[in-house]
Amino acid sequence: MTLANEIPTNETVELSDVEKAQIDTLLLKTPYASGASIDALKIIQNHRGWVSDASLLALALYLNLPLADLDSVATFYNLIFRQPVGKVVLHPCDGISCDLMGGQKIRQCLNKQLKISNGQTTDDNQFTLIPLPCLGACDKAPVMIANETLFELIQAENLPLILNNLIEEKST
Amino acid sequence: MNTEQSSEQSTYPSKPLTRFITDKANCWQLKEYQDLGGYDGFKRALTVSRAAVLDEIKASNLRGRGGAGFPTGLKWSFVPQGDDAPHPKYLIVNADEMEPGAFKDRLLLEKTPHQIIEGLLIGGYTLDADIGYIFIRGDYYSAIQHIEIALQECYDNNLLGKDILGSGFNFEIHIHTSAGRYICGEETALINALEGKRAIPRAKPPFPQVAGLWGKPTIVNNVETFCNLPHILNFGADWFKSLGRFKDAGTKIFGVSGRVKNPGLWELPMGTPIGEIIEHYAGGMSDGYKLKGYLPGGGSTDFLLAKHFDTPMDYDEIGKQRSRMGTGTIIVLDDKYCPVAMVLNLVKFFAQESCGWCTPCRDGLPWAAVLLEKIEQGKGELADIKQLEDLCKFAAPGNTFCALAPGAVEPLQSALNYFRDDFEKHITQKSCPYCEPIHSETTHD
């Protein structure tokens, strides 16, 4: 298929039976396959941690959608990762309500402790740092989301403990 | 007289939206909701004609709670009705709360999922719709979990699916968890996201009411708007109108964040004066801080000052002060935080969240961010202020495809008006006069 030439990738990936089954459930709820594309990308990401060129191609073939369309969607939304991420993705809030309450200091502490800039992953692949705008808990500012948990009223001195617990939680 | 009043109070709630939120941990579940009268509004709707329900909603003067304040009944009246109307018709709850400083929908999503579903059911019945969507922000994990359970409870109890409660009305609801981006809150961008496209706003007309999701009639309303419907059906349009303290009808979830003593959310009558919300409910400023200004309705509304405290939180009244009610969540700026830094944070957010479709937004907002950063770092020139004012004009309503850019420049244009001396001081003394300097952060772009 010519699709394969649209993104040069040497790697080939097969969708797993579990992924296919989950995507099939989505397809039942939408009159057109494209309606399932965002949720399908999330399924791929849940199983593989991120969406590689090869898995994007596999999904395009499975949904019978143009690869370019699917990639345009995958690159638009900020919770779809087109690069590998660490074990734990940290989303400190950079909205204004958090910043009024010292949110920027929290993010700078994270930069310092993890020795990475925003958008980067630590050398040991433990943490990726991606600030998100307003997480909708402005009365508890500053806040952060990680491992699907919302951390409220964060104080800089508690960060080492929070990071430690997050990694332990992922390892068990 | 007294007894009459108190019995009336118990029958007619003064805080309908939060009346189901109790101390019980599972107050969000079906049984608890029904024990307090949940789904009575929907059952009542089923006993009258679709047209009668629409008339009641129109008569209630309910206005959209997502920010624009468009009359809900009027919006709904554009949906084609009758045997010739296209099907399926869609009804969408906009739960993609991402406005900076807005955190009201999270409360309703987490604590009252059935109130939202009941609102959808009433809307579905009124408009003869077939499918509902709850378009929810992907980061709202516990809200998503509660809604999924609540939906299952409804399917298990014949409140969703075929022939609901023996009425012959069929309706199903799907949940879509967003993959992020603020622009998804714009209704036509949201529809594109549901179709699995990039969330770029559509040209109007055609309006979604006529040709929305998959080209079919579609209504998109905010979470809080839907939450009002069960109560309007239950207690009537006249009761609803009587709740407001000024001209607008009903109650609203108001919130305050920033350096106040008691940040939080409160359900209060529409028309509650701004000062009462900040000083009484939020407890005034924290010790050691003074109020410099505030955004009355989230990150895309113009600054107002202490002198506007008497203004009622009513759509038109806030409009008269050249700001907007927006989401009704107030962000307070204190005297120790740099107003230029605050505007810079907001403009950076909107620049990042622009879908990139039209020029004033895609190019104008990042340019405004560059200029503001320059000024904040003490490297600005007086000409930059003029340039910022021009950028605000370029992004004015009518020059852009959707409301993102006009909203984005509202805090900027009002800050240039009210805090101009702060901007000029940055430039003349070549540094930020506020104590905490802003260091540029590396972004992942």
3D architecture notes:
- The complex is a heterodimer of chains A (172) and B (445).
- With 172 residues, chain A is α+β, with helices and mostly antiparallel strands.
- Chain A folds into two domains: 3-74, no CATH class; 88-171, Glutaredoxin (3-Layer(aba) Sandwich), CATH 3.40.30.
- Chain A has helices at residues 3-6, 17-28, 37-48, 53-63, 67-74, 96-100, 103-114, 159-171, and strands spanning 88-92, 127-129, 144-146, 149-151.
- In chain A, strands 2-1-3-4 form a four-stranded mixed sheet.
- In chain A, strand 3 (144-146) and strand 4 (149-151) form a beta hairpin.
- The longest helix of chain A has 13 residues, at 159-171.
- The radius of gyration of chain A is 18 Å and the shape is elongated.
- In chain B, the strands form two sheets. In chain B, strands 3-2-1-4 form a four-stranded parallel sheet, with helices on both faces. Chain B has a four-stranded mixed sheet with strand order 6-5-8-7, covered by helices on one side.
- The termini of chain B are far apart.
- The interface between A and B is large, with 53 and 60 residues.
Helices and strands in order:
The complex is a heterodimer of chains A (172) and B (445).
Chain A (H helix, E strand, L loop, with lengths): L2 H4 L10 H12 L8 H12 L4 H11 L3 H8 L13 E5 L3 H5 L2 H12 L12 E3 L14 E3 L2 E3 L7 H13 L1
Parallel strand pairs in A: 1-2
Antiparallel strand pairs in A: 1-3, 3-4
Chain B lengths: L1 H10 L18 H6 L4 H7 L3 H10 L12 H6 L12 E6 L8 H8 L1 H14 L4 E6 L4 H16 L15 E6 L9 H8 L23 E5 H13 L1 H7 L7 E8 L5 E6 L4 H8 L9 E5 L19 H6 L8 E6 L4 H15 L5 H18 L5 H13 L9 H15 L1 H9 L17
Parallel strand pairs in B: 1-2, 1-4, 2-3, 5-8
Antiparallel strand pairs in B: 5-6, 7-8
Helix pairs in contact in B: 3-7, 3-10, 6-8, 7-10, 10-11, 14-15, 14-17, 15-16, 16-17
